[in-house]
Specification:
The chain is mainly alpha-helical. The chain contains 4 helices and 3 strands; from the N terminus they run H-H-H-E-H-E-E.
Length: about 140
């Protein structure tokens, strides 16, 4: 813990509520949620060539997948709301930009399964043809 710097943080109330909600969704503490999000924002700005071995590559991939899960989750709810506001009752989620076809089977399951379960638990129907290209949601 020598590399941990304690700091006080002031957040606007709305942002605090969003962080608390995200932490709960991700089964993390508020601190862990903030640290994870900050690490992801800086990781995307790391210079190319900063990975020196396979272990570092796996670690970066794991952290990045957590970010991808959040991004896909946000995309799903954005598309559901957009479609509902237009009077529709189904929407297609395009996953092609995430290059999920490069994921191992375990990484794929770790990434997509929690999102699909969450949507189904909330009453949305997901078609059986879920692929790296995307899927349909009906409501």
């Amino acid at each position: 813990m020598n590399d941990i710097q304690k700091t006080a943080l002031r957040l606007p109330r709305k942002l605090h509520t969003q962080v608390v909600s995200a932490a709960k969704e991700n089964d993390r503490t508020m601190n862990s949620e903030i640290v994870n999000r900050l690490e992801m924002s800086f990781a995307s700005k790391e210079p190319q060539g900063s990975i020196s071995d396979a272990s570092q590559a796996r670690e970066l991939a794991q952290r990045s997948r957590e970010n991808v899960v959040q991004s896909i989750r946000q995309l799903c709810y954005f598309e559901i709301e957009r479609t509902a506001r237009l009077g529709g009752q189904s929407t297609q989620i395009d996953l092609s930009k995430y290059e999920l076809d490069s994921y191992t089977e375990d990484a794929w399951e770790e990434t997509i399964t929690p999102i699909l379960k969450e949507l189904k638990d909330k009453g949305f129907s997901i078609d059986d043809d879920v692929s790296a290209d995307g899927f349909f949601i009906e409501f």
